[in-house]
Design a protein that fits this description.
By secondary structure, the protein is of the alpha+beta class. It has 21 helices and 24 strands. It has an 8-stranded mixed β-sheet with strand order 5-4-3-6-2-1-7-8.
Length: 625
């Protein structure tokens, strides 16, 4: 008892005062600047497609897209120059008396009203344009209506000046021009491939809309059919099935590849993490195809090689976050019918009708399913023999250093999760010691991975290391439950490291192409040189950066050439794999690439001179899928 009393007295000595002065009220848009992640997700510098500057662009574009979807304005002009972003639509223009409120007061929107002014819109919570305003060092809005214009300028969310209404000869619509705040988005740079991919998606989902970006036009005549043609990385086996109905559009085909690719959209918004609508479509499509043939096909055989897309329009969609990348798990009701039933009924009727009318397509599809079935059965025995061994090994796998949070969880850090695939214990040692154990896992290869191109499937699927990696990623049955958002190949920059990189990329291309097509595979850049003097240390990723560092530091600085990842100390590595500073090259497939021909070129039988050329000139393409 004496001890407890002393503890109570000691604790009271350290109590912090809590008074009225500790309670703060943030005015206007200050809360957005204080907690930007709540509104736009991660910040970043533009090196990743989900970085904040692209979310800002998307939030402004969503409003212009909504105007088009409501029948106003067929062109949107986007200009990005010197960090400034301008978006001009030719819609109805923001009503003058509410223009300032609509871009500066939270929870103010024309989309709260139950009227049809905005029916089935993307932005429904009155946050988007306000967040852009708050997170921009300069924000200008101009509305043109009825031969008049009204404009205002803000800085960091605060009104600086306003003009109008004034007479105008311009066409009606809205112009927003903003400069993301460099104090929030440090040293940001807009990347063409991410912007163009975003605009291309908008065009596919809004047939008849023309988006002009820095003079380049994006237009789609055939909607989701054009989308799938863009996404295909091998020839489709039969013509794309493209079906439309009221508030729903679907498209699908099969290709000579493994895995499955599904793309989903709600009210013109790309839901990269799927949700209720994607799950309903995926299940209904496979079930309808299986029932059409009236055969006991496995659902996995029906889905193998499929590439499909769905776009739906719903009133008051519920997304799981402000960035709207996943439709809420709740099966909402649309006009008294749940989304799952609405999609299921449409797919059942229209796909079944299509297959009955198009016998050639039906025959090709059945042949593809049968081939997938034969292939699955051929490796089934091998997998049964190895699965128990592999599962036991994976439970005590010394080659995997797992993290606490996983991508297939509901954790707030799920999108930040990653796994580094390294070569050997030396390389993995530095990463393991310096990683963030909450979100960063490490898988250490024993040696060079199996050559998935040259070896038979039976040998690949019986390979212990292949199975251990599949178990670590949780992709034996597809990527739906992938455990890490980013799968990062971290190899040395020498010939052996490049060869291991090629082998791993080949494995993903052949057996898990959807990991690549859904932007999960990356190459880690690590510094080649360290240049330092007594006052400063500079890490360099190229000969050019090394030469610049030498010029900067002068007086014969010490230069270290890192021959392998194992030579970089854990203290140094910590900075190279931090979320803020990590340099990653996304592995992507260009739309005009033939995967089979590409793999044959890189992994086929080549002369030693050609192999040397390939290794020394290997570059991972960064063009969009």
């Amino acid at each position: 008892m004496l001890v407890l009393k002393n503890m109570e007295r000691n604790l009271s000595d350290y109590q912090i005062a809590y008074t009225e002065d500790d309670i703060k009220t943030l005015e206007g848009l200050e809360h957005v600047r204080h907690r930007p992640g709540m509104y736009i997700g991660k910040l970043g510098d533009g090196s990743h497609a989900d970085d904040g500057i692209y979310v800002l662009l998307k939030e402004v574009l969503d409003n212009s897209i909504d105007e088009f979807r409501m029948g106003s304005g067929k062109t949107i002009e986007v200009v990005i120059e010197n960090g400034y972003v301008s978006v001009r639509d030719y819609g109805r223009g923001i009503p003058f008396k509410k223009m300032l409120d609509s871009v500066s007061i939270m929870n103010t929107s024309g989309k709260f009203d139950e009227s049809k002014a905005f029916n089935k819109s993307v932005g429904l919570n009155g946050v988007g344009s306000k967040a852009v305003n708050a997170l921009s060092s300069s924000f200008v809005v101009k509305s043109i209506r009825d031969n008049q214009e009204y404009s205002a300028k803000f800085e960091a969310g605060k009104l600086i000046e306003e003009n109008g209404p004034l007479s105008s000869t311009e066409s009606s619509g809205t112009l927003i021009r903003f400069l993301p705040d460099n104090a929030i988005f440090t040293n940001y740079v807009f990347r063409e491939e991410y912007i163009e991919n975003m605009l291309r998606n908008y065009a596919y989902l809004n047939t008849g809309l023309t988006i002009v970006y820095n003079g380049k036009k994006f237009f789609s005549k055939n909607g989701l059919s054009d989308l799938l043609n863009e996404k295909l990385t091998s020839d489709n086996l039969y013509p794309i099935v493209h079906l439309k109905g009221a508030d729903i559009e679907i498209a699908f085909t099969h290709a000579d590849q493994n895995g499955e690719d599904f793309y989903s959209y709600v009210n013109g918004q790309y839901t990269s993490q799927g949700g209720t609508h994607q799950s309903a479509y995926r299940e209904a499509l496979a079930r309808t195809i299986k029932e059409f043939y009236n055969k006991n096909f496995e659902i996995s055989d029906v889905r193998n090689g499929i590439i499909a897309a769905i776009a739906i329009s719903v009133e008051n969609p519920i997304f799981e976050s402000q960035t709207k990348i996943k439709l809420g798990s709740k099966d909402m009701s649309e006009n008294g019918v749940t989304i799952t039933k609405f999609i299921g009924d449409f797919v059942k009727k229209e796909v079944d009708n299509y297959l009955h009318k198009n016998h050639e397509t039906a025959d090709i599809l059945q042949k593809k399913i049968s081939e997938s079935e034969k292939e699955r059965k051929a490796i089934s025995d091998i997998q049964k023999k190895t699965r128990n061994i592999i599962k036991k090994a994976s439970l005590h796998n010394s080659k995997l250093r797992d993290c606490r949070v996983h991508y297939n969880s509901q954790h707030t850090l799920a999108n930040e999760t990653m796994i580094f695939i390294t070569e050997g214990d030396s390389a993995s040692g530095s990463i393991t010691k310096s990683r963030n154990v909450n979100i960063q896992a490490v898988f250490s290869l024993k040696g060079k991975p199996i050559n998935s191109f040259k070896e038979s499937k039976s040998k690949v699927f019986s390979n212990e290391e292949f199975n251990l990696l599949c178990a670590a990623l949780n992709v034996e049955d597809g990527i739906e439950n992938l455990r890490y958002n980013k799968v990062i190949i971290a190899t040395d920059a020498d010939d052996d490291g490049m060869h291991i990189r090629l082998l791993l990329v080949t494995m993903f291309l052949l057996h898990f192409p959807d990991i690549i097509s859904h932007d999960h595979l990356y190459i880690l850049q690590t510094p080649l040189f360290r240049v330092r003097n007594k006052k400063e240390t500079i890490y360099c990723y190229s000969d050019e950066e090394r030469n610049d560092a030498i010029e900067k530091l002068k007086l014969n600085p010490e230069i270290t050439r890192f021959k392998g990842l194992g030579e970089i100390s854990p203290d140094e590595f910590k900075d190279f794999i931090s979320v803020e500073n990590m340099r990653l090259d996304p592995v992507k497939i260009k739309k005009d690439d033939s995967v089979k021909e590409m793999i044959k070129f890189y992994m086929g039988d080549n002369t030693p001179a050609r192999q040397d050329f390939i290794i020394r000139h290997l570059r991972i393409e960064e063009d969009v899928v």
